[in-house]
Specification:
By secondary structure, the chain is mainly beta. It folds into three domains: 3-118, Immunoglobulins (Immunoglobulin-like), CATH 2.60.40; 119-171 and 236-290, Immunoglobulins (Immunoglobulin-like, Sandwich); 297-383, Sandwich (Immunoglobulin-like). It is 5% helix and 44% strand. A five-stranded antiparallel β-sheet has the order 6-5-4-9-10, with no helix packed on it. It is elongated and about 115 Å long. Residues 16-109, 296-381 form the Ig-like domain. InterPro entries: Ig-like_dom, Ig-like_dom_sf, Ig-like_fold, Ig_sub, Ig_V-set, Nectin/Nectin-like.
Length: 420
């Protein structure tokens, strides 16, 4: 008896597609059984997904069509109505026939096929590395955009565009030294004249790291003038692409684009991350516009603060859409904050139990990202509190212990006099 088995090859399929596995075999013997297996764990485990037993003439599971096409030619099909990522992998079709010479002997043969299940990416997002981060007009900064693409199989092709044009970038096998890491430095909120600005220029491309410089900065108006290190020429971009497998069989791809930021030409530049994938009919994309903060909107609660109240000053938004995330720094003009600190970081400044001497105090909020900075001022007006006698609060807005003692003593004497 002879027996030949072959499975028709399959093109890659997309998650959700219906797939039919076809096993063709020829024989001059009598059918004994057909068994389909899903092979897992590198071939160590074979999961039985379909059985046809000619002895008992029984069918189990997915067999859709078993028929005799012509003499000695057969086909067994297994249909997967809606494939999933977990269906990816090899399948085997095992056929057994009785030998024509003796009914006790069974002849076996098998064929295999690999089912390649693709999945389009499910999400794409662009973010800035190391944010919030300060703005510096006096030192070149490296800036890194990160594009994260999740849910795809196989790994997608990821690339960046600027203002709709593809970016020609130098590939990097490893992250460049210092790329995307903001050098620690004191935040220079206010203007410096040219005599205080270093004249040496860093090399083009990735910004050279410098030691932070601490200077006493006079109180002046923020200037939009940029220093001499700013280059008008096209920036040099550096690109890195990595991908990591996820437990569900898909891949998370990360692409980074790093260059020396130029606030003059990069402000309001539109960057997009685009993804090509064989399971997509057209590229996916996500885009961001680099924008410096402008016109912070500040609210103060309560709107009518009284002595002893807790006052909250909050940045609620801007006149424009800002990217990347700004860094907020609060200072009190001409003095320290209520808690004695020179500045406070965060969107909200909380002043607990405000004393009367804070009436008229001015607070500055500096909002900045690597594209630029802006200052907004607000003045605190503190009204008298009828529940707190004038002149009895200390610097923390509470009654002094000396006055509290005198008040308790007076009340005690009053009660004694009434009793007598």
């Amino acid at each position: 008896a002879y027996l030949t088995v072959s499975i028709e090859p399959l093109p890659p399929v997309v998650v959700g597609d219906a797939v039919t596995l076809k096993c063709n075999f020829k024989t001059d013997g009598k059918m004994r059984e057909i068994v389909w297996y899903k092979v897992t764990d590198g071939g160590t485990i074979k999961q039985k997904i379909f059985t046809f037993d000619a002895m008992f003439n029984t069918n189990f599971s997915h067999m859709e069509n078993y028929r005799k096409r012509e003499d000695l030619v057969y086909q067994s099909t297994v249909r997967l109505p809606e494939v999933r990522i977990s269906d990816n992998g090899p399948y085997e079709c095992h056929v057994g026939i009785y030998d024509r010479a003796t009914r006790e002997k069974v002849v076996l043969a098998s064929g295999s096929v690999f089912l390649n299940v693709m999945a389009p990416p499910t999400s794409i997002s662009v973010l800035a590395a190391d944010t919030p981060a300060p703005f510096s007009r006096y030192q070149a900064q490296n800036f890194t955009l990160v594009c994260v693409v999740s849910g795809g199989k196989p790994a997608p092709l990821v690339y960046f565009k600027r203002d709709g044009e593809p970016i020609e970038a130098t590939p990097l096998p490893e992250p460049p030294a210092g790329a995307g890491n903001w050098a620690p430095r004191n935040l220079l909120h206010r203007d410096l004249d040219d005599t205080k600005v270093p004249k040496s220029e860093p090399p083009r491309g990735l910004a050279a790291e410098r030691d932070p410089v601490t200077e006493i900065i006079p109180e002046t108006v923020v200037s939009r003038e940029f220093p001499r290190w700013v280059h008008v020429a096209e920036p040099i971009y550096y690109f890195r692409h990595t991908h990591a497998p996820v437990s569900d069989g898909t891949v998370e791809a990360r692409a980074t684009l790093t260059w020396t930021l130029n606030p003059q030409i990069d402000n309001e530049a539109l960057f997009s991350c685009e993804v090509k994938h064989p399971a997509l009919s057209m590229p996916m994309q996500s885009e961001v516009m680099l924008v410096a903060p402008k016109g912070p909107k500040i609210t103060m609660t309560p709107t009518r603060a009284r002595v002893g109240d807790t006052v909250r000053i909050l940045v609620q938004g801007f006149q424009n859409e800002v990217f990347p995330e700004p860094l907020f720094t609060w200072t009190r003009v001409g003095s320290r904050l209520l808690d004695g600190s020179a500045e406070h970081d965060g969107k909200e400044l909380v002043l607990e139990r405000v004393p009367a001497e804070l009436n008229g105090s001015m607070y500055r909020c500096t909002a900045q990202n690597p594209l630029g900075s802006t200052d907004t001022h607000t003045r605190l007006i503190v009204f008298e509190n009828p529940n707190i006698p004038r002149g009895t609060e200390d610097s923390n807005g509470s009654l002094s212990s000396h006055l509290s003692f005198r008040l308790v003593l007076a009340l005690t004497l009053t009660v004694i006099l009434e009793l007598t």
